[in-house]
Each structure stands twice: as structure tokens, then as C-alpha cells.
Design brief:
Number of strands of chain B: 0
Strand content of chain A: 5-15%
Structural class of chain A: alpha+beta
Shape of chain A: extended
CATH topology of the largest domain in chain B: MetI-like fold
Order of helices and strands of chain A: HHHHHEEEEHHEEEEHHHHH
Number of helices of chain A: 12
Oligomer: heterodimer
Number of strands of chain A: 8
Radius of gyration of chain B: 26 Å
Number of domains of chain B: 2
CATH superfamily of one domain in chain A: MetI-like
CATH architecture of one domain in chain A: Orthogonal Bundle
Helix content of chain B: over 70%
Largest sheet of chain A: 4 strands, antiparallel
CATH superfamily of the largest domain in chain B: MetI-like
Chain lengths: 408, 399
């Protein structure tokens, strides 16, 4: 078999050579269609490598001249700068490494809270854009057009310098329903746990699980027998009964409410949110929500009109139609662009450096100015963002895969 | 035109004529269900709160003196008085291009020219601008109308128009920088709106060819080039612009041989261009993927080489399909140039930061930022509006 093929090829070559009587020289390799791409790529690779080598060489010479040795050992040295708000304890005597950890946690904190809030507002505004109420439609459109077309950084500065910092001092705080607003932030009542909290939480979880089970059972019965079984009322009743039991057992409220108290300089107790955090959170949420809103609107509009008409013909009311028919179909189109908006929000949280909220870039910038290890810091910052991007994409992609239409 | 004969056997029953009264309209659009009644009142409440807050502030506290006194600073920064004619000349060139293009293409660009005229007229009416400025403004308006009329009748107008736009960046940079012919103006003197516009123009124009190359690379079959492009695009898209600016500030001086320095503004331009290129590439790739395979095959059958078919057949169609996306990217780059204020350049927002910390105007942050926001908004909105118009006229997504 193989020998046969070999003969075939030899024969072909002979024929070709005979046909091309003039020369039996094969095409030179620089005109060979198979070789050109390979050579091009080789040239490209060599060029990139040489360029990188040249730049790195320059960098090494430069670093030597400055007397800085490249390496990540400096992360173990004392940072000696202060970070005003952090999720874990931090003192100036702690290391650069810990400072960076604080920065990363602060980035994650503002991003996660931001993503949750921005999704809620974005979906509401996106649906409001399609409302049959003229005023609501115009109002949400106005909000989107104004916010989308001004830079986020300008908005951040407005929130921070022109709104939050111009509030009165702590002594003269503006108080609205237990919330205190002043130029160092917001103080609000918050919950503290008491002896009964554990009982409440465990019974609440049991109640929720029970409610779900009863809801499913009742719904199945309703589908089977065709008689109304009121699954929602049943499950609500289950939950309420569990909570009543919890109250009888623990004999107290689930949590105590801790009100902020004005001390000599500032508030103590309650939940206090700094102006910097408020500014970056407000800015990010209000800005990104407009993008989410437009995506949601586009997603809803992409669901074919026949679906709405069919639902209306069946006599399904508007809210149910939205929840059970339109949104499940729209969400397939919505997820991928929303993912990139979540990533944008996370990346934009780096603008917090401009309003003094100490997240990753801000801490990194301070550390690089103090230690002189600029390249290392940049590598760390970039890798953290890349890892966060990667994880978010993975999570959202798997969510997306579950949501996609299963096709044959 | 109702010419159909209406015979008694075939009578058409027309729907009852609906009278649109204000009351009827309100009932239909605002109060048609209990839920909408609640929504209407909530909206009215929001409008009331916002309007009340704004109006009280405007009447009692707002003092626009800070804008009036620093208007020149906001626009051109520290560009010196003797050299200001160069900025005006650059602007005049742009006005000329707008006028010509409005005459040649009409449509969207004509509306943009109307906007430009409106801006000039508004500035003409501002009482605090000097007579010198007003002469320049007037000549701009005259140029706009003259070039519009010329553009209407110009033979081979499209070629001239495209050529003019291609050269615009070079001409503008020539006026501002001098290229050795005119005395040079230090780049650190380029501030304010001028810097914002230059930065975004350079980033958008520079990133376009790089983006196309990256997109072609990413869709090509050559593995090394393909993976290089993928790595570059995904890397850039994964990191925030501000870290790109920081890296450029630190790495460019480090990577260059000793004694070789690059001005801050150039570093930022490189950073912004490299950053936007990755996003441009993704937009262009979307266009490339929307081209049916038959186009490649048809190009091959008529004997075009792969380079010819890419640049003559595929790219023109692909780019046409993604014009709105590219404009969208340009808007976001324009807004993102404000980030240079963090790395020490004094663009429009940077000027705002300097002005508000001027002791003479302490406590007028809101006025300063609102003015800056308005300037950004007008330009960005004009861009997004024209992009929407383009989308309609091109019929993108409808074929």
C-alpha cells in the first residue's frame, strides 16, 4: 500500500519534471507557499524576543544604576504607612505584604458590594426604560444619557469633593431617620448579635428549607389535581410558624440594634462608612448601573414580540410574564455583556486612588513610592487584576452555560 | 389618498376616531393602572426633590465667577497669549473640514456642523470673552459656512474630504508643536480641553490601525502570531487603564537607554493608544466574524491573494459593520482621557483640580466640576448621537 503510494508520487514528480522541461529545480524556499508563513512567524517571534531582550537589558542596567535589586523580598519589610480602613487589622509596623493584602481585600469589598447594588439598580432602570408609564420612561432615559456621557472620574470627584466633603462636621451631622451624614462619612444603626441569635438563625434556616419543600409539594399537587393549593401561602405560613417558635424558645429579638453615638470627635457604635468608600461606591454603582440598564433593555427587547403576545393571550399578568417568560429568555443574551460590565466595575474601582480610598492600586502606589520596587509592584497589581478577571469570567461562563438554551 | 371605491357590499368599518386630549393622554400614559399611579407619584417626587435641591443651590449658593475668571485656562491652559493664534488656526482647519464634509456628505456630519456653529454662536454671546477671541470665532463661523457651500459643489469632494481628515492630526500637531518650522511650544503648556482633545484624537487614530492588525492576527491561522495577539488583547483587557498609565510612567524611562527621555504626554499617548488598540481589536474582530465565508471563497476564485482579499473585500465590509462599536469605543476613550489627571497631566479635569484649589475660589467645587462635566457631556453626547444616526443610516443589524 505505502509502496504503491510512493510510486504514485514518484510518477507524478516525473510527469511534473517532464512537463516542466526547462528546469528540474524546485521552487526556492522563499517563494514556497508552505514556507512563507512559517518564516514570517519566525521573523516575528525573533523580532519580539529581541525587542523584549533589549528592553529588559536596558531595565536591568537602569536598575543597577539606581541601586535597586529586583526581587520580592521587600514584601517582608515594615511598611510604615497607615491605612485608614481595612477588613483585617493593620498597623504601620506591619509588612508591605500585609498592606497589599489589605488593599486587595478593599478592592474586593468595593467590587462585590458594587456589583450587587449595580445589578439591582441596573435591572430596575432597564425595565423602567420600557415601562408604559411615560414619566418613568423619560426619567430613566434622562438618567442614562446624563451619566453615561460624562467620565466616571468627574463623577467621583463630584461625589467626593463637591457633595460628601461639603457636608457639615460630625458635631453638626445631618440626621435622617437614625442615619447621620457628615463630612467624615455616614453613621447608621446596625445589628449586634445576642444570646438568641444562634437559635433564630438556625430556626430561620430550617423554616426556609421547610417552606421551599412545602412549596414544591403543593405546586406538584396543584399541577396534578388541577385545584388551587396556594403553595405560596403554605410556605409563608411555615416560615412564620418557625419564627414564632424561635421567638418562644429564645425569648428575645433576633438581634439588638446598635445606634451610633456621637463622641467627642466622631461617632462610635453602629455602622460607620467612610466618605471615601461612599464616594467610590456611589460613583461606581451609579455609573455602571446605566450600562447594565442598557444591556437589560436590549435583552428584553430582543425577546420576540410573539412571546409577550402569547403570554397576554393566556391571560398572564404583567409581573408574572416578566418573571417567568421574558426574563428567562432575555437573560441568555444579557449575561455575557453584563459579565464584562462586572469586570469593568472591578477595574474601575482602581480610580479610588483619586478619592483616597485605599484599595490595591492606591496601596501599591504608596508602597512603590516608599520602597522603590516599582516593577515588582506593577507586576503584583497587574497579576491580581488578571486573576480576578479570570475567576469572574470562569464563574460567569459556567453560569452562562447553565442558562443557555439546550440545543440538539 | 383614498381612491378605493367604497361599495355598500364591501364597506370597511373604520376604527372609531380617537380624540387625543391632554386628559386622555395623561390617563393613558401615566394613570392607567394602580401600579402606574404609584410610579407616577414616585417619579414626580424624585423630580421635585432634585429640582428643589438644584434650584435652591443655583439661586442661593452657586457663583459662576470661578468659571468666568478661568475660562481660558479651562480651554487651552497655559498656552501663551502670543502663540494662541496657533490653537485658533488648528481649530480653523477643523472647522474647514467640518464645513467641507457637511457639504460633501450631508447627513450626520451636517448636524455635527450645526452643533459646532451653535457652540461658536453661544461663545460669541458670552460677555466676558475678549474682542480678539470674538474675531476668531466670527472667522470660524464664516469659514464653516463658506466651506459648506464649497463642499456642496466640490468635484471629487469625497477624496479631498477623506484626505483632509487623514492629514488633520498632522496639521493640528504642526500648528501646536511647530515641528521645527514654527517655534516649539513645550508640551507641558498643552493643558485643558486642548490636551483632552489631542490625547483622545491621538489615542483613537493611533489605536485604529494597531487594532485592525491585532484583530487580523487573532483571526489568522498562523499560530505564533495568533497566540501573541490573543495574549496581548486579553492581557490589556484584564487590567485597568490607570495601571497602564502608571506602568508607562515607570517602565518607559526604565526601558530606554540612558540619557534618552520621553515627555510625560508622549508616555501617556503611548499608554492610551496601546490600551485602546486591544479594545478596538475586539470590535474589529466582531466585524470580521460577521462576514460570511462565501466572501473569502469568492475573493479566492477571482484570483485575489489573501492579502488583497483581506484588504479589498473583507475589511471594508467588516469595518462598515462595526462603525457604531468603534464610535462607542472612541467615546469611552474620550471619557477615559480624564484619568491622566491622576498621573500628573493637566487636562480638562486636571485644570479643574488646580482651579478648585485656588484660594480665591475656595468652596466652589460643584460649579467647577459641573462645568467640566458639561463640556465632556456635550462632546460625548454629540458622538453617541451621531453613532446612533450612523447605525440607522447604515442599517447595521437589520440585514
Amino acid at each position: 500500500m505505502r509502496i504503491g503510494r510512493l510510486f504514485e508520487r514518484l510518477e507524478k514528480m516525473l510527469v511534473v519534471n517532464i512537463l516542466a522541461k526547462k528546469s528540474h529545480v524546485s521552487t526556492p524556499f522563499w517563494r514556497d507557499n508552505r514556507m512563507i508563513p512559517i518564516m514570517l512567524q519566525l521573523f516575528f517571534a525573533i523580532f519580539v524576543l529581541l525587542l523584549c531582550g533589549y528592553l529588559i537589558n536596558n531595565a536591568l542596567i537602569g536598575l543597577e544604576r539606581l541601586g535597586i535589586d529586583f526581587g520580592f523580598d521587600f514584601l517582608q519589610r515594615t511598611s510604615s504607612f497607615n491605612i485608614s480602613e481595612s477588613l483585617i487589622t493593620f498597623q504601620p509596623t506591619d509588612t508591605y505584604g500585609r498592606a497589599l493584602l489589605v488593599g486587595i481585600l478593599n478592592t474586593l469589598k468595593v467590587s462585590i458590594i458594587g456589583v450587587i447594588l449595580t445589578t439591582i439598580i441596573g435591572v430596575i432602570v432597564g425595565i423602567a426604560r420600557l415601562s408604559n408609564n411615560w414619566l418613568v420612561r423619560k426619567l430613566s432615559g434622562l438618567y442614562i444619557e446624563i451619566i453615561r456621557n460624562t467620565p466616571l472620574l468627574v463623577q467621583l470627584f463630584i461625589w467626593y469633593f463637591a457633595v460628601l466633603l461639603t457636608l457639615p462636621s460630625a458635631q453638626e451631622s445631618i440626621s435622617v431617620a437614625g442615619f447621620y451624614f457628615n463630612n467624615s462619612g455616614i453613621a447608621m444603626p446596625w445589628f449586634t448579635t445576642n444570646d438568641g441569635t444562634a437559635v433564630w438563625v438556625s430556626l430561620f434556616i430550617i423554616g426556609v428549607v421547610g417552606a421551599v419543600i412545602i412549596w414544591v409539594i403543593q405546586l406538584k399537587r396543584q399541577i396534578k389535581n388541577g385545584k388551587r393549593t396556594f403553595p405560596f401561602l403554605w410556605s409563608l405560613a411555615t416560615l412564620i410558624i418557625m419564627l414564632v417558635i424561635a421567638f418562644i424558645v429564645s425569648g428575645s429579638a433576633p438581634v439588638n440594634i446598635d445606634n451610633p453615638v456621637l463622641g467627642n470627635f466622631n461617632f462610635t457604635g453602629g455602622l460607620r462608612i467612610s466618605s471615601e468608600f461612599t464616594a467610590i461606591l456611589l460613583g461606581l454603582v451609579i455609573y455602571t448601573a446605566t450600562y447594565i440598564a442598557e444591556i437589560v433593555r436590549g435583552g428584553i427587547q430582543s425577546v420576540s414580540k410573539g412571546q409577550t403576545e402569547a403570554a397576554k393571550a393566556l391571560g398572564i399578568k404583567n409581573s408574572t410574564m416578566m418573571r417567568l417568560i421574558i426574563l428567562p429568555q432575555a437573560i441568555r443574551i444579557i449575561i455575557p455583556p453584563v459579565t464584562s460590565q462586572y469586570l469593568n466595575l472591578t477595574k474601575n474601582s482602581s480610580l479610588a486612588i483619586a478619592v483616597g480610598y485605599q484599595e490595591l492600586v492606591s496601596v501599591g502606589n504608596t508602597s512603590m513610592n516608599q520602597s522603590g520596587h516599582a516593577i515588582e509592584m506593577i507586576i503584583i497589581m497587574i497579576s491580581v487584576y488578571l486573576i480576578v478577571s479570570l475567576i469572574t469570567s470562569l464563574v460567569m461562563n459556567s453560569f452562562n452555560r447553565r442558562m443557555q438554551l439546550v440545543e440538539r | 389618498m383614498m381612491h378605493t371605491e367604497i361599495t355598500p357590499t364591501k364597506s370597511k368599518v373604520l376604527p372609531p376616531e380617537q380624540k387625543q386630549t391632554i386628559f386622555g393622554w395623561t390617563k393613558k400614559n401615566l394613570f392607567n393602572s394602580w401600579f402606574n399611579i404609584i410610579l407616577t407619584f414616585v417619579s414626580l417626587f424624585i423630580i421635585f426633590i432634585v429640582l428643589k435641591g438644584t434650584l435652591t443651590w443655583v439661586v442661593t449658593n452657586a457663583d459662576w465667577e470661578v468659571i468666568r475668571a478661568n475660562y481660558r485656562l479651562f480651554m487651552v491652559g497655559q498656552f501663551s497669549e502670543e502663540e494662541i493664534w496657533r490653537v485658533w488656526s488648528a481649530l480653523l482647519y477643523l472647522t474647514l473640514l467640518f464645513g467641507l464634509s457637511a457639504g460633501i456628505w450631508k447627513g450626520t456630519i451636517r448636524q455635527l456642523s450645526f452643533l459646532l456653529t451653535a457652540i461658536y454662536v453661544i461663545h460669541l454671546a458670552l460677555p466676558f470673552l475678549s474682542g480678539h477671541t470674538k474675531i476668531w470665532l466670527l472667522s470660524n463661523i464664516v469659514t464653516l459656512f463658506a466651506s459648506y457651500v464649497i463642499g456642496l459643489k466640490l468635484p471629487k469632494g469625497k477624496m479631498i474630504g477623506i484626505g483632509g481628515w487623514l492629514f488633520s492630526i498632522i496639521v493640528i500637531l504642526f500648528f501646536l508643536q511647530g515641528f521645527g518650522i514654527l517655534p516649539s511650544v513645550q508640551t507641558s503648556m498643552w493643558n485643558g480641553l486642548l490636551l483632552t482633545v489631542i490625547l483622545s484624537a491621538v489615542a483613537i487614530v493611533g489605536s485604529f490601525p494597531i487594532g485592525i492588525l491585532l484583530a487580523l492576527g487573532r483571526t489568522s491561522k498562523l499560530p505564533i502570531i495568533k497566540y501573541f495577539c490573543i495574549a496581548y488583547i486579553e492581557f490589556i483587557r484584564g487590567i485597568p487603564l490607570i495601571t497602564v498609565f502608571f506602568s508607562m510612567q515607570i517602565l518607559i524611562p526604565l526601558f530606554l537607554p540612558e540619557g534618552f527621555t520621553v515627555a510625560n504626554i508622549i508616555r501617556v499617548m503611548i499608554g492610551a493608544t496601546l490600551f485602546t488598540a486591544a479594545y478596538m481589536a475586539e470590535n474589529v474582530r466582531g466585524g470580521l466574524q460577521s462576514i460570511p465565508k462565501g466572501q473569502f471563497e469568492a475573493a479566492k476564485t477571482i484570483g485575489l491573494s489573501s492579502i488583497q482579499s483581506t484588504f479589498l473585500i473583507i475589511l471594508p465590509q467588516a469595518l462598515r459593520a462595526v462603525i457604531p462599536a468603534i464610535v462607542g469605543q472612541s467615546i469611552s476613550m474620550f471619557k477615559d482621557t480624564s484619568l491622566v489627571a491622576i498621573v500628573g497631566l493637566v487636562d480638562l479635569l486636571g485644570i479643574a483640580q488646580t482651579v478648585k484649589s485656588n484660594p480665591a475660589f475656595l468652596g466652589h467645587h460643584m460649579e467647577v466640576y459641573l462645568f467640566v462635566a458639561l463640556v465632556y457631556w456635550v462632546i460625548a453626547y454629540a458622538m453617541s448621537y451621531s453613532s446612533r444616526r450612523l447605525e440607522e443610516t447604515l442599517g447595521v443589524g437589520k440585514r
